[in-house]
Amino acid sequence: MLQSPVEFFRTLPKKVCPECGEHIQEQAESYLFECERCLANKEE
């Protein structure tokens, strides 16, 4: 039986920053793979 699209997206695991392991709060149209703190540290 196929899962409804709503249920599919609801059950996806949260995105995790590969640098520090912190959960990334996703936003619509966001393709970030690292958290904002790690991105800011790389810019310095």
TrEMBL record:
InterPro entries in the record: YhfH-like
Keyword annotations of the record: Ribonucleoprotein, Ribosomal protein
Name of the protein this chain belongs to: Ribosomal protein L37AE/L43A
Native organism: Oikeobacillus pervagus
A cellular-component GO term for this protein: ribosome
